[in-house]
Every structure is written in C-alpha cells, then in structure tokens.
Design a protein that fits this description.
The complex is a heterotrimer of chains A (about 230), B (about 170) and C (about 575). Helices cover about 70% and strands about 0% of the residues of chain B. Chain B has helices at about 1-35, 40-50, 65-85, 90-110, 120-135, 140-150. Chain C has a single domain (about 30-250, about 260-585), classed as Cytochrome c oxidase-like, subunit I domain (Cytochrome C Oxidase, Chain A). In chain C, strand 1 (about 250-255) and strand 2 (about 255) form a beta hairpin. The chains are: A mainly alpha (about 230), B mainly alpha (about 170), C mainly alpha (about 575). Chains in contact: A-B, A-C, B-C.
C-alpha cells in the first residue's frame, strides 16, 4: 500500500479533519492521536484491562494455594462423586460460553431477539453452575466441617478450618462470586438490550467477562479438584 | 562440597530471575518499539491494517470454528478428568494438567474472546504484561519449600540445629 | 465535538449536557474536573487527620517518661497505624493520581472527558467509602488496629490479640479491599483515556511528562492492586473463617497455643509487598511527572532528554515489580532470593538517576523564576536525592538486616515517598490552582509555606537517620532500654517533635491559602505561567467540555520553550507548525 493511500485512510478515520484546514496528523500514524490506535472499542479495551487485573487476583489466590500446599502434607478428599459433579459443572460452564458466542454473533448480525435468547440461555447455564456448586458446598460443610465445629465446641478449644478446605473455599468462592455477578450482569443486559438500550458492543463486552469466568475455572478445576482427587 | 551446590542453586535462581527480567524487558521493548515508532515495519503493518474493517467482530468467521473449539475444550476436560482416574506421580500430573489448562485457556482467549482476530498491537498491549506479572509470583515458592523444611517433623535429627534438611 | 470514532463503529454521544442542579453538578458529578476536585478535598481531609495523629505520637515521644505517658502503648501503635494507612492510601495515592490526574490528564491530551465518566464517579465514591470505613475504625469498640500500615500477620490475623485487633482490624482490611476496587476502576479509566482519546497530533511522544507519569502509574496500579486484593481476601478468611493461610503452627498467644496450623506469615508479606513496592511508585511517579512539567516551565527550557525521561518512567514502572523482596530481607525469606532482590534493587537506581540528572540538566543555565510552585518542585528534587541515597544502603541485604525496623528506614521512606510526594502535591497545587479556580494562590504566603516546610521536614528526618544508625527501633512507644540509654536520645526526640509541629502548622497555612485564594485570590488569565501544554489554551476554569466546543489539534511537543528563532519564548502545542522555524527545518 502506498503512503498516500494510507494517509487517505487515516484522514477518513478522522471525520472532522476537513473542517480544521490542517493536514491529517503528521505522518498519518495510528499512534499520533485522533483515532483509537488499538482498533478496538474503548469499552472492549476497558473490559480487557479489567480481565488483566482480575486474572492476576485469581493467579495470586492460586499461587497462595500452591504455596500452602507445597509446605504441608496435603490430603486428597475429592472422590468419585465430587469429580463427577465438578466435571458436569465444567461442561455446563463451557457450554454456556458457546451460547455466549452465539449471542455475540447474533447481536453483530442485528438479530436482537436471538441475541436476547442466547444471552438468557447463557445466564441459565451460569445459574445451573451456581446451584450445583452451592449443593456441593453444602455437602462439604455437612460432611467435613460440621464434625470439626462440633468437636471444637465440645472441647471448648475453638475450631480452625483445615487448609485443604480453606484454599478450596477461597478459590471456588471467589470464582462463584464472579459467576453470580456475571449472571446478574447478563440478565440485566439482556432485558435492557431487548428494550433497545444497549448495542452489540455491550453484548460483546459482557461476553468477554463471561469467557473470562470460564477461563478461570479451567485453572481452578484441575488445580483444586483433580490435583486432590482420589478415586 | 556443599558450597558447590549452594553456588549452583544461586546461579540457577539468578538465571531464572534475569530470564524473567529479560523476558519482561523484551515484551516491554516490543511495546515501546510500536509506541515509539522505532520499528518502521510494524508501523507499516499497523497502517496497512487501518484500511481493513477495524473490528474483527463484524466479520463472519463462521460459527463452525467455534463448535470445533467447544468440542476440543470438552475433550481436553475429559482427558484431564481421565488423568485423575489413573494415578500418576504428582509432579507429572501437575505439569500435564497445567499444560492442558494453558492449551484450553489459549483456545478460549483466541477464539471465544476473539483475541486471534484483534490487531497484533492489541494483543501485545494486553498479554505480555499479564504473563510477566503472573510469572513473577513464582518467586514466592523457594520460601514455601523452606518453611516445609523447617517443620518439626521434616527436620532430620542430625541436622536439627542447622534447620535445613539436605 | 467528536472524540475519535473509527469509521465502522456505531457512533455514540460522548458529550452530555452540563447538569444544572447542585447535586448533579457538584456531588454526583461525572465531570472529570469535579471528580478531580473531590479527590483533592478528600485528600485534604485525610491529610489533616493523618498529620494530627503524627503530632499526637510525636508529642508522646517528646514528653515520654516511663512514669507518665501522653498515649498508652496501645494508643501509640494505633496512632502510628492509622497515620501510615491514611497517608499512604488516602493522600499519597489519591491526591496526585486521583486529584491532579483526573483533572488534568484529559485536558492535557485534548479530550472532553475520561473514557468512562460514570466509572470515574464510581471510582471516587468507592474511594470515599473506603475512607469512611477506615475512619469508622476510630469509633468501634477497641479502636483502630495496632498492626501498622503493613498489617502483618500473625498479629493482624488474630481477632483477640489486642484491643484494636477485633472489629478495627476487620474494618481496616475491608477498607483496603474497597480501595483496591476503586483503584482498579480508576486505572482502567486512565489507561483507556490516554490511549484512545488523544486529540489529533497528540502522539505519545508529544504528551507532557505528567501525562506519561499518570499513564504508567495507572498501569502499575492495574497490575499491583490485584495482588493486594487477593492478599486482603485471604487475611479476612483467616480472621473470620478460621483458615490458616498466614498463621503457622505453634503460635502461642495469651499462654495458649492456637489451633491454627499450616500457614506462613511470609506468604502475606510476599503478597503485600508485591503490591507494596509498586505502591511506592504509584505515590511518587505522578510527583515526578508534575515536577518535570513545572521545572521545564519555570526554567523556560525544554525538558532535558524528554525521551530518556519517558523511558526512565517506564523503566521504573517495570523494575518496580521486580524488587519487592527488599522489604523482607530480615523476615526469614530465602537468602538466595534475597541476593537476587538486592541486585535488582540496585538497578532501579539507574532510571531514578537518569531522572535526577535530567532535572538538573533542565535547570542548567535556565532563566529560572522562583515562584512557589518552582520552589516546591526544586524541594522535591532535593528530597528525592537525599531520600534516594539512603535507599541505596537499604537495598543491600546485609546492611538492611541492621537498619530494618530502625528509625533509619522511617526517615528514608518519609523523605522519598512521603514528604517528596507532598512537595509535588504542593507544587502542583500552586501551579494549577489558577487553572482550577481562575485565581492565583497567594505568593508570599506560598513562599513562607515552602521555607517553613523545607527546613522543618529536614529537621525532622535528618536526626532520624542518625538515631537509626544508633539502632533506635521503630514502632516502640517508649525507650527506657539499655541500648538506648544515650542522653542524646530524649533531646533529639524533643527537637524532632518541635520541627514536626512547625511542619504541620505550615500545612495549615497552605490549606488556609487554598481556601482563601479560591474566593479572594488575584484573578488569573488563561495562561498565567506562559506554559505550552493544552491545559493553558482553555479558559480558567475550563468550560464543561474543556475546550469550549473546539477540537484542539496538536503540532508541537510538550516542552518547546525558548526555541531559537521563534517569536515568543514558548510555543504552545497547538500553535501552527510554522511557529517554530527551528523545528520545521527537519
């Protein structure tokens, strides 16, 4: 591509350029201001930056888990039942990511109703994940923690949570918080999108968040469950 | 003889450290090169791309690709779960699982999150900084191993006063 | 007025109407200028509380006798903790970045507002909430925590340790977690704004150094606060849910061994300082940017080595992430890692020195005007050098084991991070006040403020270095110990306390000047200091959309002062390209 054509393109990108009587940005470079140099919508860039930060938070949690695990003898409390449940949860979450992709696709093709439908289905997937996960939590609290609490009460020594459960609740709890927030986000977005308030880019940005939640689970699931499985 | 090992350990640690630094610096320089227009080729590349539609999302990549990615993700998950059923040594298990997870993460970022279809400069602005920051946290592990060695049950009798199990 | 739309994108309306009602205009405002002022006011309230606490414990130390104490040891530690937390988080992080950054970053790059105005508002209100939660620790039973601004476990992880460690410590952790969220939102906004909303011609290498500093600081904040958030979360779990991330086995407390086992306080220290060291740069980098901006303006010279300055800011930002271990040399971390951290800590001196020499180069043979803003900028350079030198000692792990937890460290970080950043805030205020409020601040009062502050802060912190060399430990409420039996020590404490009172009273002078000048100061024109950057082409104070409906087009670098052959001794960034014959030649 010739220099002149490139400059013309840049000029086209600045709608108000002609009104100022100046040449387009000197050199016509993308980084010289007046255009978004990264070629992405600001909202999308912002969401990516949030994902950067949040992935570091999750990484720090998982590093803390590894640190504690490295310096202790670690039990393997996850048996067949837990693994089957958590595998099912993983499948639900992965599939909800696929429906999210479909929602973004529909939104980009301006098929509003379809986009709303797929977004709601994604939220439903998230809801199923939260329900399954909560049931699992309750099971663990009943089977593993209640006896400890009772024993602590009897001996009046107070109780402490074994670190295998401490790390489990820290990592999965933080993740579940993200899923729950995500479900609320998607439902509100879908309802408002139906009323014509948001644009395709908003669906896409929500999609980024949802895929990120999925992505985190791809690390939490093997590191927390499978590494401590005994079947 | 002990000192040779100390020296080697120090050399490895220093190597890892400086590797991280050089890696980080390299990623940063790549960013600076683009930002500072030091590299004319990349600038031309960026300029050339401006002519194309700016956002990959508006192009139709074909949904078939996404179904394939979904299938691959499910397959890798099943593979991981399968690993839990055959009892591998812990370290091999960890490396395999992390490898598969990174693969899955790459698929999700690349296709579902569209990074593959964004501009190169966008990916360079986002990914190296994140990876370097996360990798930096590895520096906490020598201390985790040491506190393990300090625990009463792990200190061999004859080394009880030196504090480090060799 | 359009803000850089790509052709393909759906257009959206960026410019909202200026709200008329008081509550939307001044309280729940999405205007970056109002939010900047809100941050600044928050910092003023916080600084009054924080400095008041420091006077309380300085008075305690000066009048200390084992028989009668002004504060009991618990209260002493509570005062120290809250002093540190309030000043580090609520003043040094909010005023230079949230205050000046919010106000001037969009204007300096020629944008109408931040990229996400509503998130900007959210960021401020979260910061305010965090501040209120922190302050609430004063009134809950037991009072604020005693664990210092670093909040090290096991002390901070045990609910029943001392009076402040119950609800007070919980509020402290909660406040920090909220602050992390606020900073995250703010950082995203700053980064997107800087990259996406620059006016035409405002290439990255034409941005003022203050903008560069805010930009890099935002990147640091984005990457580092995330780790503190994780660390704080685990601390809350340890305190409330009985986990043991940070509590090892065998902690004996009140003649009773705790049940916790399996954790390590080192883990917290790693997570905290992974954030904590970059936080130092979050506090000081905006100051460096502001000072560079002011030095060039009042020396009437281009900044010496603009590119080197930019790369030095970036390098400090990057290396700042590699050196956190130097805060932990005597915590029992692996000595091999400590050596690596020590070497890396030395390397950060290189970009710092580049900046210092470039400041001196900028001043060299300049036509210097000694306004209050310039005096404070020069004071910043002085403090940065004298505080930085002691940092080189402390970076050696062998030396640090002796110095750590003495007054030497206290003096070091107060000079370089606390007082230097305060000087940059004062410099920025004197410099930009005419733009923010349309009036000058009172100059004679400003100069009096400078000399009082400059002399008194050195009188506070130079003796502290010496006491640290003698081994005076920090965070001790009393000093009736054999190794501190030197008769000099009480008299030095007296002298430091007297100087501290002068320093704090001088700040009251500043606050008085600030509010008095808002209404009574001399009216300022658009460009009172003959500056070059975009904030000086706007009205004073700027219109709601900053540039009054015009879109600035940038043709020059940020520091074209005294260009040979030009008509004036400065060329505005928006002047036509032919204004600089010298620049047009190549």
């Amino acid at each position: 591509m010739s220099e002149a054509a490139a400059t013309a393109d840049t000029a086209a990108a600045h709608a108000p350029a002609a009104s100022h009587g100046h040449a387009p940005a000197p050199g016509g470079n993308l980084w010289d201001g007046g255009v978004r140099p990264l070629g992405a919508h600001s909202k999308k860039f912002g969401m990516w930056l949030f994902i950067v930060s949040d992935s570091i938070t999750f990484a720090a949690l998982l590093f803390a888990y590894s640190y504690v695990r490295l310096s202790n003898v670690w039990p393997t409390p996850f048996h067949g039942h837990s693994i089957v449940t958590s595998t099912a949860m993983t499948f639900v979450l992965l599939s909800s990511s696929l429906t999210m992709v479909l929602a973004v696709d529909a939104a980009n093709k301006k098929l509003r109703d379809k986009a709303v439908l797929w977004t709601m289905l994604t939220a439903l997937g998230g809801l199923i994940f939260v329900v399954l996960h909560t049931m699992e939590w309750l099971g663990i609290i009943n089977d593993h923690l209640m006896p400890l609490i009772k024993a602590g009460e009897e001996t009046k020594s107070g109780w402490t949570m074994p670190m295998v459960w401490g790390t489990f609740f820290a990592a999965t709890g933080m993740h579940m918080l993200h899923v729950t927030v995500g479900v609320g986000y998607l439902v509100v977005l879908a309802l408002q999108y139906k009323n014509g308030k948001f644009k395709a880019i908003d669906i896409e940005v929500a999609g980024l968040y949802w895929h990120f939640v999925d992505l985190v689970w791809m690390f939490v699931f093997p590191l927390i469950y499978l590494m401590s499985a005994k079947i | 003889m002990e000192y040779v090992w100390y020296f080697l350990l120090f050399a490895v640690l220093a190597g890892v450290w400086f590797g991280l630094i050089v890696g980080g610096a390299a990623s940063w320089c790549a960013l600076c090169a683009i930002v500072g227009r030091a590299n004319k080729d990349i600038v031309a590349f960026l300029r050339g791309e401006l002519a194309k539609p700016s956002d990959g999302a508006h192009k139709d990549h074909g949904m078939a690709e996404n179904y394939v990615v979904w299938g691959a993700l499910l397959f890798f998950t099943l593979l991981e779960v399968g690993l839990a059923y055959i009892h591998l040594p812990l370290l091999i298990m960890l490396v395999t699982l992390l490898g598969l997870s990174l693969l899955k993460a790459a698929l999700i970022i690349g296709f579902f999150m569209h990074m593959k279809f964004e501009k190169r400069s966008f990916a360079i602005s986002i990914i190296p900084a994140t990876v370097v920051t996360i990798l930096l946290l590895n520096v906490i592990f020598p201390d985790g191993l040491r506190s393990n060695a300090f625990r009463e049950e792990n200190v061999p009798e004859e080394h009880a006063d030196s504090g480090e199990g060799h | 007025m359009s803000v850089a739309h790509d052709v393909e994108e759906e257009h959206e309306v960026h410019v909202h109407q200026e709200p008329k009602e008081f509550i939307w205009k001044y309280i729940f405002s999405t205007d970056h200028k109002v939010i900047g002022k809100q941050y600044f006011l928050l910092a003023i309230v916080a600084v009054v509380i924080g400095l008041g606490l420091s006077l309380a414990f300085r008075y305690h130390l000066a009048t200390y006798t084992p028989q009668g104490m002004f504060l009991n040891p618990d209260h002493y530690l509570q005062a120290v903790t809250m002093h540190g937390t309030i000043l580090v988080f609520m003043v040094l992080t909010t005023a230079p970045l949230g205050g000046f950054g919010n106000y001037f970053l969009p204007i300096q790059i020629g944008a109408v507002d931040m990229a996400f105005p509503r998130l900007n508002m959210l960021s401020f209100w979260l910061t305010l909430l965090s501040f209120l939660v922190l302050i609430a620790a004063f009134v809950v039973p037991g009072g604020p925590p005693v664990s210092g601004w670093t909040g090290y476990p096991p002390l901070s992880a045990i609910n029943s340790a001392t009076p402040g460690m119950g609800l007070g410590q919980t509020l402290w952790v909660g406040s920090i977690a909220i602050f992390c969220l606020a900073s995250l939102v703010g950082a995203i906004n700053f980064i997107v704004t800087t990259l996406d909303l620059r006016a035409r011609g405002m290439s990255l290498m034409r941005m003022p150094l203050s903008t560069w500093a805010w930009f890099i600081t935002a990147i640091i904040a984005l990457l580092s606060f995330a780790v503190l958030f994780a660390g704080g979360l685990l601390l809350i779990l340890d305190r409330e849910l009985g986990t043991s991330f940070y509590i090892p086995a065998g902690v004996v407390f009140g003649a009773k061994e705790l049940n916790h086992k399996g954790g390590s306080p080192l883990l917290y220290q790693h997570l905290f300082w992974f954030f904590g060291h970059p936080e130092v740069y979050i506090a000081i980098l905006p100051g460096m940017g502001i000072v560079s901006h002011i030095l060039a303006n009042f020396a009437r010279k281009p900044i010496f080595g603009y590119n080197a300055m930019v790369y030095a800011i970036a390098a400090i930002g990057v290396i700042g992430f590699f050196v956190w271990g130097h805060h932990m040399f005597q915590s029992g971390m692996s000595p091999y890692v400590a050596v690596a951290f020590s070497i890396l800590t030395m390397t950060i001196g290189v970009p710092s020195a580049i900046k210092t020499f470039n400041w001196l180069g900028t001043l060299w043979k300049g036509n210097i005007e000694f306004t209050s803003a310039m005096l404070f900028a020069l004071g910043f350079v002085s403090l940065f050098v004298s505080g930085g030198i002691s940092g080189i000692f402390l970076g050696q792990n062998a030396v640090d084991i002796y110095f750590h937890d003495t007054y030497f460290v206290v003096a070091h970080f107060h000079l370089i991070m606390g007082v230097a950043a305060m000087f940059s805030i004062a410099a920025g205020t004197y410099y930009w006040f005419p733009k923010m409020f349309g009036r000058y601040m009172n100059e004679p009062l400003g100069k009096l403020h400078f000399w009082l502050t400059f002399v008194s802060v050195y009188s506070v912190f130079i003796p502290m270095h010496i006491m640290g060399l003698w081994g005076h430990p920090r965070r001790y409420a009393g000093f009736e110990y054999a190794f501190l039996n030197d008769p000099m020590i009480p008299s030095m404490h007296n002298m430091i306390t007297a100087a501290a009172f002068v320093a704090v009273l001088a700040q009251l002078l500043f606050i008085f000047n600030y509010f008095w000048s808002m209404y009574k100061g001399a009216v300022a024109p658009e460009n009172p200091w003959n500056g070059t950057s975009l904030e000086w082409i706007t009205a004073s104070p700027p219109a709601f959309d900053n540039f009054g409906g015009k879109e600035p087009v940038v043709n020059h670098g940020a520091y074209e002062y005294s260009v040979p052959g030009a008509e004036k001794d400065y060329i505005m960034q928006t002047d036509p390209p032919e204004a600089a014959p010298h620049a047009a030649a190549h």
